[in-house]
């Protein structure tokens, strides 16, 4: 009506630019800024004030708040922030200073047959377990091979674990253990192997059991499906990894996911939900900064914010 002054719409001025209320942006140096506006009561601004011009009125109504960008990294081995970004990313893995792509299978520099895989920024490693005691026959991947000390006895050299008899005394049994020879005379022990696996070695008084053949892999079912020692595979669940051990057993481990956002996107065939690609809300997927009406209240407007 005549005689009534209309104040400009509230907004913020920052570095010579006008910002709408509620606007959020990122400044150089990875600082997150937002425009917050407080609308004063009508009597706070007279129609004409000699010391107050329009830009100063705007600065009184709006203020810019800036804080360092807060990064929440939901993985154990994130990649550094890409060019122009502020936060590390879980789209790959950084392991021992080397960047690995998603799904990359590798072995660490100091690992003996250890196999690692990169999944959603997490590195999971599995190592075959070698049986204790004397060294077994080398496996196809040579993960459990070792070289114990040999024994020198009466001008002869014996391997670790070798049993032999003294010359002229076929009933005295000696054994090489870690470079030392131990000899003893004892009655024949009770053997726990079947008769067809017993044999009498030349120069010995007692029969002994033949060593069982070293396992060459893992059998998973009655159909004859076999994995070699050290083979890594997923049995169907992308979050579960299994490895064939040197003794023929299968060892499995699950990847634990860290969900740090309330509306993550679950991608089929991927182990961990993704908090960096957008938002999954009420059965729909929205991209970052996308606005949409609320399913519960048509008067509310929602926005997807990836943090």
TrEMBL record:
Keyword annotations of the record:
Glycoprotein, Secreted, Signal
Nucleus among keywords:
no
Output the Gene Ontology cellular-component terms.
cytoplasm; extracellular region
| GO BP term (any one) | cellular response to virus
VWFC domain span: 10-91, 91-152, 149-210, 216-276
Concerning InterPro entries, the annotation shows: vWF_C/EGF_Fibrillin (IPR052080), VWF_dom (IPR001007)
Q: Which SUPFAM superfamilies match?
A: FnI-like domain
Localization, per the record, is: Secreted
The protein here is known as VWCE protein
